[in-house]
TrEMBL record:
Lineage start: Bacteria, Bacillati, Actinomycetota, Actinomycetes, Streptosporangiales
Source organism, top-level taxon: Bacteria
UniProt keyword Transferase present: yes
Phosphoadenosine phosphosulphate reductase domain segment(s): 60-237
Organism, scientific name: Streptosporangium saharense
Gene Ontology MF term list: transferase activity
Pro residues bias: start-end ranges: 311-321
Region: Disordered, residue numbers: 1-23, 272-321
Protein name listed in UniProt: 3'-phosphoadenosine 5'-phosphosulfate sulfotransferase (PAPS reductase)/FAD synthetase
Extent of Low complexity compositional bias: 290-310
Keywords from the UniProt entry: Transferase
């Protein structure tokens, strides 16, 4: 649930604003019409391009309806080099319809698509078969075991989403992160949730990556108006489940969520009976917060994810719209 509270129905052309001052904003966002919000988005992108030595521009698309608004808005920027592209992380535990929606939209808009894949699978993570590669537990302990509750989100995010994005960055600029940067255009918004209100920033440099959220100031009403104005194709998965369905790790799943998914998509990619059976064997006890029961308290991971702290800036919503 977002922070914005609409007191009356928003009509096209009416100004709107995020309620309050976001933690990473220099000031409280002013009232803006949709056209003014669009202009501000282009200003944010221009600032990032002027401030940093960008050699590649890539739009991160989860497949949710918000990310399609982002992609439509930033299309004109994806023509500066052969590295410019739409980027979708195929976590391996998403709904096929969402992946196909991304592919179809990229093709319809004549945009190159890079579909990234994580090195470690969700199944291996759940079964405790991913051993730390760096840090004090390298070669000794699993980074996680069991279905994740909230405490396991950072592990799942880093292994399933951040790792392929970092490899993608390395493939473009190698070790030249000081003199070359990759611009990741993401769809995070302050009005999206309390968490995004605290963590999202318009421009957020991180080594060789420049995270840019040109929609940060957009309200939910402005997103709806833009979709209606430009007839943005909607993802049926998002319409049914109110999330993109590109990552079903279950870290923040609500009770009964798996049943809800199965109602619309009878063959969800996770979790399989075989994994549950493996986790029920002696010595293979799942985490107490095992999905789909996140209300229980999850234990700390068996080992830190190779020494990484929980992510401060996920590149796209972990609870996509």
């Amino acid at each position: 649930m977002g922070r914005h509270q609409t007191l009356m129905p928003m009509l096209p052309g009416m100004p709107d604003a995020v309620a309050g001052r976001p933690a990473k904003a220099s000031a409280r966002p002013p009232l803006r019409t949709l056209d003014q919000a669009i202009a501000r988005s282009h200003d944010i992108i221009a600032q990032a391009l002027d401030r940093y030595p960008i050699v590649a521009r890539q739009a991160l698309v989860s497949g949710g309806n918000d990310s399609m608004v982002l992609l439509h808005l930033v299309r004109p920027y994806l023509d500066s080099s052969h590295h410019d592209a739409v980027v979708h992380v195929n976590t391996g535990i998403g709904i096929d319809d969402t992946r196909q929606h991304v592919r179809d939209t990229a093709a319809a808009w004549n945009l190159p698509l890079r579909e990234l894949h994580p090195r470690d699978s969700y199944e291996d993570l759940v079964l405790g078969q991913v051993i730390a590669r760096t840090g004090p537990n390298a070669g000794i302990r699993a980074v996680w075991k069991g279905f994740p509750g909230p405490a396991g989100h950072s592990v799942m995010y880093r292994r399933l989403k951040n790792e392929p994005l970092q490899r993608n960055r390395a493939a473009i600029i190698g070790t030249h992160g000081r003199s070359q940067k990759v611009l990741y255009l993401a769809g995070m918004r302050w009005d999206e949730s309390d968490r995004r209100f605290r963590t999202a920033a318009e421009i957020d440099p991180d080594g060789g990556i420049i995270w840019c959220s040109p929609l940060a100031h957009w309200t939910n009403a402005q997103m709806r108006e833009y979709r209606d104005r430009h007839l943005i194709p909607r993802n049926p998965v998002a319409e049914h489940l109110h999330m993109s369905g590109e990552c079903l790790c279950g870290a923040y799943a609500k009770p009964g969520e798996l049943d809800e998914i199965a109602f619309f998509y009878p063959r969800p990619p996770t979790p399989s009976a075989a994994w549950k059976s493996a986790l029920s064997r002696p010595g293979s006890r799942p985490a107490s917060g095992a999905w789909p029961h996140p209300a229980a308290t999850s234990p700390s991971p068996a080992a830190s994810p190779d020494g990484c702290a929980p992510p401060a800036r996920p590149p796209w919503p972990d609870r996509p719209t």
